[in-house]
Amino acid sequence: MADYLVIVESPAKAKTIEKYLGKKYKVKASMGHIRDLPKSQMGVNVEEQFDPKYITIRGKGPVLKELKTAAKKVKKVFLAADPDREGEAIAWHLAHSLDIDETSECRVVFNEITKDAVKESFKHPRTINMDLVNAQQARRILDRLVGYNISPLLWKKVKKGLSAGRVQSVAVKMIMDREREIGRFEPEEYWSIEASFMTNKEEFEGAFYGIDGKKQDLPNKEEVDQILAKLKGKSFQVDKVNKRERKRNPALPFTTSSLQQEAARKLNFRARKTMMVAQQLYEGIDLGKAEGGINGLITYMRTDSTRLSETAKQEAANYITDNFGKEYLGSYKQGKKAEGAQDAHEAIRPTSAFRDPKSIKSILSRDQYRLYKLIWDRFTASLMAPAVMDTMTVHLLNEGVEFRATGSKVKFNGFMKVYIEGNDDNKEEKDKFLPDLQEGMTVAAEEIIPNQHFTQPPPRYTEARLVKTMEEQGIGRPSTYAPTLDTIQRRGYVTLDNRRFVPTELGEIVIDLVEEFFPEIIDVDFTVKMESDLDSIEEGKIKWVSIIDGFYQGFESRLEIAEKEMETVEIKDEPAGIDCENCGHGMVYKMGRYGKFLACSNFPECRNTKPILKEIGVNCPKCKEGNVVERKTKKRRTFYGCDQYPECDFISWDKPISRPCPKCDELLVEKKMKKGTQIHCTNCDYKEEPQS
Question: Which residue in the list 20, 282, 300, 369 is annotated as catalytic?
């Protein structure tokens, strides 16, 4: 019979911890929260200082009964939920449900699930931190007051099933503002002049810089022609050669935000998937008897800190020295603490630097291995020496017209031996060599090519860009990024097009109404201040009731105004101009979760629906009669097919284009590449240069 009961959130975590603690301990899982506010009502008594009404979550009765039975059979119960606000709240709710004195030393926390960390944590149990609990409680109540007051109003004024959340509304507003910015954008013309130079049978590239040492822009063709007219022949003199050594420092280890961004760039993981796989690595993987059975492979994955423990740094230093040599060992420079960062936990890192990804690849799933490798690589690289780059800039003159050529090469790869940080443009830094040029030398321009360009609108948000922007502006916290992105898609306020967020018409309608009547809900400064207030509650500086009360006083009056003045928005079914092939009634455009779709006007008698097909101006290459249209899979991935389906089964993941291959006259398609979009033939080896 066990002497102690330990309660954690998940069965995987329970299994790992029970193995470490031994026979005196029985570890069980609560499967997340046991209690919450009721779904069927507000559950907050506004008149009684916002007193929350908690109930046992539907379906959790058997779990709670099992925990109560187990608790009666032991000397003491330890609550070992995750080391954050949410985990503290889970522990508090469990204490209430199991009649555990919350002022007793019943709370155990650890940042990593390893034998040493878990055993050490049980030597130092503490009381439940009510400041952490109240911070979580305040967020929950605040979001309930917003959601359960605005949502019924939207049902009444727009349509059933709508809702408006606090952080989610700000995220949708950001996406909507970016889309409107793109719509207003007017491209501006600009030019460049590229040149291909030759010296001693070595070719290199350069570009126009300016006149008489002053940088000059090229806004139009007239200015380009003036520059070209000044050139005397194609001989250029090397005026200056600047050589220098540049150091490049490694990226810091991962926070929640930077992990989600890098996993999106390098692994094509959505934020939700990243956190799901990270949770598996944190809770423990069975590595087999040789590796000691179940082990937590990474530290806690919800953090905004880049801090590392001295133990972790020393272990990594030993690994780097043993495997790469002393010259590869660097000194860790922790980044400046971001404004608003809680810095409660370490950065996300492997629990053991010596457990390199290759040694456990066969044990992990493909996704687990790829994410673990990303975390291990980034952590190890952060403690390695800077890379050293040799750079060279050459100034070339012809009648005062200056061209410049730049080159660089890696002199010492340092941390780059293990890892190079990605970027949103998918541009890789590669060696770009220049010949050994000396001042006074003459080089010949083989080709001088003027190029017309146009400025591009700001890009739509990817998940990575949106998370980065939210973090920079102080919107949300590490635990909220993935749920926020998931929620705004499930509600149908935004959709993903080529992995970029686009607001739906429904999203625009809802956000415009919220902005008109509840401007503070989608005001970035208000949201940032609210996050700061929640942090202050956690630090014990402010009482949570005062924060909620200060918000609700103004919110309640605006709610009354909205009830009276918000006009009903009728989303009319627009006739599509075609008849239903099933019953003959007219088809109409309806608004759905992912935007508009076609439906029969004779609903509910006829339930015929169709997606709206977007033609791309290309005839079907297979049947020659239909047109190629854009379609979506169930998971919203774009593909292209014939509008005569199922009679014609033509399909392509790459976008077909209207012109034929100049080499074999077959179909050309646009293929997404890391460097941009490349046109290539589906039949022969014809390819065009990628366009960014």
Answer: 300
